[in-house]
Amino acid sequence: MDVQKLNFITEACIPLFKRLTAGAMGNWGKMNGQQAVEHVAAFFYVSSGKIKFDLVTPVEHLPKFKEFLLSNKPFRENTKAPENVIGEEPLPLRHGSMEESLEDLTRSIIDFNNYFKEHAGTKTLHPVFGELDHEEWVLLHYKHVTHHLRQFGLI
Predict the structure, then answer these.
(1) Beta-strand (E) ranges in 21-148?
(2) Do 11 and 76 touch, CB atoms closer than 8 A?
(3) Can you say how many angstroms the Cα of residue 103 is from the centroid of all Cα atoms in its chain?
(4) At 114, which CATH number?
(5) How many separate domains does the chain show?
């Protein structure tokens, strides 16, 4: 387990996201600050099985995706989720304020950690990367969180 990355997710990313304003626009992409926070929270809920997607990656391509996941390579700027996962346009806001969205992000991270404490050794499905265990989710969440923090110039 990469404890440093897990600690970044659980302790460092929320204070960084709190520096973001709801309407801030990133250095790339279409999401504003609040949409990005809600997007990140949603994928923590995917990892804890609260939001479910079908696998969209052909099974024969999963080893290549897993290789990327296990590498130290970050997501490139403008990396987009497949259209059949979240669509081309940002999703409508689920919360009435940035504060509510940040509270939900905090809850989603806590739920992620609790889920894997209660279900040690289990795997949950990411629509692109396939079945992931806790350690693999930590690596993916770290890449995902830092990607969006870089998008808004927060790291």
Answers:
(1) 124-126, 130-132
(2) no
(3) 15
(4) 1.20.120.450
(5) 1
